[in-house]
Amino acid sequence: MLNAHLNFKLLEMCSKCGACFSICPSCVNLPGYDPRIVIKDILAGDWEKWLTSKSIWQCLECHHCLEICFQHYGFENAMTALRTIAAKRGIHPTQVKRGWDMFVKTSKLGDPALPARKKLGLPEPAKSGAEEFKKLYALLKEKKAKSGKTH
Ligand code: SF4
Ligand code: SF4
Question: Is the C-beta atom of 11 inside 6 A of ligand 1?
Answer without folding.
Answer: no
